[in-house]
Design brief:
- By secondary structure, the protein is α/β, with parallel strands linked by helices.
- The chain is 50% helix and 15% strand.
- Among the domains are: 133 residues, Leucine Dehydrogenase, chain A, domain 1 (Rossmann fold); 158 residues, 3-Layer(aba) Sandwich (Rossmann fold).
- The strands form two sheets. A seven-stranded mixed β-sheet has the order 9-8-7-6-10-11-12, with helices on both faces.
- The protein is globular and about 60 Å long.
- The two termini are 30 Å apart.
- Bound molecules: NADPH dihydro-nicotinamide-adenine-dinucleotide phosphate.
- The site of NADPH dihydro-nicotinamide-adenine-dinucleotide phosphate has 25 residues, from helix 9.
Length: 450
């Protein structure tokens, strides 16, 4: 990077931070993209002249609202609801809703920003958005979750629609929550449309949507491994999280002949040296999706190691698939992973690796798939759900899975196209950022001052 360019980045970031104070995750996500784009923008001045970067970091619209609801004891509770409508240059806003006590404006802006590039990479016509609430579904009854979802949608409905903004799930928002949200939207609008994705199969959902993010990440990692003549067969794999993404990641790794030895939640991680086979995975699905218990119960049942308040990155493995949350692999953990022989890190979660951790992976030249490319399978199948809803048909598992595999392959090709360096090393971070940027930026140029 030239001296002048790094000064340019510093000035741009200083301005962004002054305008968006106290939003470290948003700053982190923007900084990564700006660094990747630096040389590309120097070589393509039309984007600089049109100030595309300055525009793309500014959300088109932010909606914040009060969500009042009554708990089972009859007490009035209040949470904050958000929807960030980040960019609609290439399609309606699209991105998940997150219900978690850590949710705030900066976290949702980082997620919405990433979503713009991710959705562009899928090749499908979807803009970027993200939303959610600081509501914590943990420990709440089904009725409380329903009342919360109904109150949330009572405000959100006026801002979304199948051609405007189509939310989906994320942390804390799975099939149960999407059902309650959809039901309320339908009552208020008197309209049955594809306004949300991740719906149940009996009311407009797509097959493979629950599986898509985890499967997609494994498909992406498979493509990366192929560039080095490797496969999942016989590999030991670390997975973090125990939710939607983690569960289907384990399922696909098992199918491809790998062995997953860890899972985690916000309380700690389990290590099962024999591997989490399909039978044990069934138990995890029951534990997390129905009983809504803690991952430590896995260790009690199968008599394996449980480490409280720790993350799994100290365990020895060939591949790591982080699938819990942002900034869950730091620099020290990255060094440990690599020195333990890890050859591939592919991000199921959004921004799970800190910038310092990413630098370790790049310096050591291991295969590193950033979330905006590697976990795009979820939103890709959401896009396919929108298509099926518009056509009022439902495709078979085989059809959707084939399309998902093709999309993940195409995202990999885009990363190779834009991320291959002179020394043949594929920098997937640059590849995903530049590849995702070009389509959105060109659409913005065509549309004038938008
Ligand atoms: P779930 O709510 O189903 O599962 C999340 C898992 O991560 C849980 O095991 C949870 O543990 C753990 N977790 C959440 N927050 C924290 C935290 N602050 N510290 C430690 N552990 C935490 O969510 P998903 O599986 O859907 O999402 C996981 C990741 O994948 C997120 O980064 C999400 O943005 C990303 N993603 C999801 C997509 C999807 O289609 N669902 C699409 C693309 C990306 P606990 O139960 O203890 O909170």
């Amino acid at each position: 990077m030239s001296h002048t360019s790094s000064l340019g980045i510093n000035a741009f970031m200083a301005d962004l931070m002054a305008k968006n104070p106290a939003e470290p995750e948003f700053h982190q996500a923007v900084h990564e993209v700006v660094e990747s784009l630096n040389t590309f923008l120097d070589e393509n001045p039309k984007y600089k002249h049109a100030r595309v970067l300055e525009r793309i970091v500014e959300p088109e619209r932010i909606i914040m609202f009060r969500v009042p609801w009554v708990n089972d004891k009859g007490d009035m509770c209040v949470n904050r609801g958000f929807r960030i409508e980040m960019n609609s240059a290439i399609g309606p806003y699209k991105g998940g809703l997150r219900f978690h006590p850590t949710v705030n404006l900066g976290i949702l802006k980082f997620l919405a920003f990433e979503q713009v590039f991710k959705n562009s990479l899928t090749t499908l016509p979807m803009g970027g958005g993200k939303g959610g609430s600081d509501f914590d579904p943990k420990g709440k009854s089904d009725n409380e979750v329903m009342r919360f979802c109904q109150s949330f949608m009572t405000e959100l409905y006026r801002h979304i629609g199948p051609n405007t903004d189509v939310p989906a799930g994320d942390i804390g928002v799975g099939g149960r929550e999407i059902g309650f949200l959809f039901g309320q939207y339908k009552r208020i609008r008197n309209e049955f449309t594809g306004v949300l994705t991740g719906k149940g199969l009996n009311y407009g959902g797509s097959v493979i949507r629950p599986e898509a993010t985890g499967y997609g990440n494994v498909y992406f990692a498979r493509e990366m491994l192929k560039t080095r003549g490797e496969t999942f067969e016989g590999k030991t794999v670390l997975v973090s999280g125990a939710g939607n993404v983690a569960q289907f990641t384990v399922q696909k790794v098992n199918e491809l002949g790998g062995k997953v030895v860890t899972l985690s939640d916000s309380s700690g991680y389990i290590y099962d040296k024999d591997g989490i086979d399909d039978e044990k995975l069934k138990f995890v699905m029951y534990l997390k999706n129905i009983k809504r218990g803690r991952i430590s119960e896995y260790a009690d049942k199968y008599k394996v190691k449980y480490v409280e308040n720790e993350r799994p990155w100290g365990e020895k493995a060939d591949i790591a698939l982080p699938s819990a949350t942002q900034n869950e692999i730091n620099e020290v953990e990255a060094i440990t992973l690599v020195s333990n022989g890890c050859m591939c890190v592919s991000e199921g979660a959004n921004m799970p690796s800190t910038p310092e951790a990413i630098q370790v992976f790049l310096d050591k030249r291991i295969l590193f798939g950033p979330g905006k490319a590697a976990n795009a399978g979820g939103v890709a199948v959401s896009g396919l759900e929108m298509t099926q809803n518009s056509m009022r048909i439902g495709w078979s598992r085989e059809e959707v899975d084939n399309r998902l595999q093709n999309i993940m392959r195409s995202i990999h090709e885009t990363c190779v196209q834009y991320g291959t360096k002179d020394n043949e090393f594929i920098n997937y971070v640059d590849g995903a950022n530049i590849g995702g940027f070009v389509k959105v930026a060109d659409a913005m140029l065509s549309q004038g001052a938008v």
